[in-house]
Amino acid sequence: MTTATTHGQSTDEEDRAAFEEFKTLVNMTAHQLEKWLATEESRAVGQKDGDAESVGHKSGRRIIELLGAKKSDLQADDYAHMRKVAGYVKRHMAQRPHGDIEHTNWRYSLMNWGHDPLK
Fold first, then answer.
1. Which long-range contacts (CB under 8 A, 24 or more apart) does 99-107 make?
2. CB neighbours (10 Å) of residue 115?
3. Residue 76 lies in a domain
4. Cα separation of 35 and 22, whole Å?
């Protein structure tokens, strides 16, 4: 169990909220996300940070692990990543382009983070 400290750790209540928000916003299953991450479209989008793999693509691989983890096994860094995912998805959703989004980099990027806006 996590407790609040002066070192920036989250409380149990904050972790529960992060978990619930993550489960709500990540609307792709681990299997769907794994299949998606294997596509050219998935690898073609996102910020690379000097690496061959984009930040979102790496995040997608981590999301697959989180989706398969037991809640009792989750650690502080897992909850931190859940908050990062939720923040990204909410910010990106606010930038939705006009028109058909099915084949857009905007959608593909969100899907790397486990959220398909067409679902």
1. 105/44, 105/45
2. 24
3. yes
4. 20
Domain that holds residue 100: 25-112
Q: Is residue 100 part of a domain?
A: yes
Average pLDDT across the chain, whole number: 92
Whole-Å CA distances, 38 to 8, 35, 41, 63, 98: 36, 5, 9, 14, 27
Condensed to tens digits (0 to 9), the pLDDT of residues 55-85 reads 999 999 999 999 999 999 999 999 999 999 9
Q: First and final CA of the chain: distance in angstroms?
A: 34
